[in-house]
Description:
- The chain contains 16 helices and 19 strands.
- With about 450 residues, it is α/β, with parallel strands linked by helices.
- It has a 9-stranded mixed β-sheet with strand order 9-10-8-7-6-5-4-1-13, sandwiched between helices. Strands 14-15-16 form a 3-stranded antiparallel β-sheet, with helices on one face.
- α3 runs parallel beside α4.
- It starts with a helix and ends in a 17-residue tail after the last helix.
Amino acid sequence: MREDLIERYDLRVPRYTSYPTAPHFSPAVDGAAYARWLRALDPAAPLSLYLHVAYCAEMCWFCGCHTKATRKYAPVADYLDAMLAETKLVARALPARMRVDHIHFGGGSPTLLTPADFGQTLATLREYYNVTLDAEIAVELDPRTADEAYVAAMAKAGVTRASIGVQDFDAKVQRAINRIQPHDVTARVTRWLRAHGVSAINMDFCYGLPYQTVASLIDTVDKAAALRPARIALFGYAHVPWMKPHQKLIPEESLPGLAERWAQYEAAAERLIAHGYVSVGLDHFALPDDAMAKAHEKGALHRNFQGYTTDRAPVLIGFGASAIGALPQGYVANELAIDRYKAAVREGRLPVTRGIAVNGADRLRRDVIERLMCDMGVDLDEIALMHDVAAETFDEDLMRLASLEADGIVMREGRRLTVTEEGRPLVRAVCAVFDEYLGQGAARHSKAV
């Protein structure tokens, strides 16, 4: 891609894992509103559950997650006790013992839990929710803290998918982000997972990390592809020290410039495709026989707070400090501070402190943005018809697309939009054209590339 285009469109825009996005949540939606929304759900609708384990053994300096480092297990156990109490509070607020088809453990580091506590967590969920026998149970796994006994216990408890955080295999990069994880450690845990029946394996990598180069990233991609995970995520490192103060430990001068970031993304993406992976959305790659690749081919891919997903549940319930949920009525977010979160739950209160109710216009634009993010294109006439609005609703948005179209980022045929292959890494800039909230408030976002 031409460097002038990168500079012009590499704006600070949302990642669009929701619409409206989290910076526009407000205290107007609280625990009482959440309780009303839960009671009003269709009892037959399936749920997706997300559990946020807000602790790690140590802080990775690149991390943008809401987490806290601890060397002791007591705080983790106390937090888990509160989170399990929250799962019961929510279950009691629901109109029925509702079906669950998908459970995702994120963090932080879920593998910080002891095998017994991990098993007890799933047992509690199965007691209060109708977890189906074929439910996908996914865990974000830190290979540095999981031994084979732990992997075996996870598999026995019902885990079907593991997502392994790697970021980069280069030793210099690992030291710069405070995440020492040799290739052998990742390869070993991958063997253990497959040996114990967890064959659905994801791996997460970053470009734009300190001291990273095109050559070092290509070496990382080759090593990852040799392990043959079903899915690979290639995220752009978001340097947001104003939000995550620990990122100040990464020297600004060690970060690659804009042109180098783009070169890394382009080279890594081409290499993954050469290894037989299918490009999915903005930053995911999957083997052709994986469910994500198949959903992408059918136009059935979705996007939520965990990123790209095949999960079609209309309700996502988030548990834990900072966890976010999505319901037909809108979005809810839990208390950020762990101590205040625990206090709220132990007082018998749903710990939601902010959120946003969505209206028809929000749902309309959410569908446009989701299809752009998932399919790299959208038929605005089709979306308008689905929402029973005039197709001319988008005419002003289409006018604002003119420069993106002129620069070859997006192609337009009537009201059908297609993001070009060259424009793929700038799809968030295309989405931003349809974002009526962007520019409101003081929110700051990561770069588009």
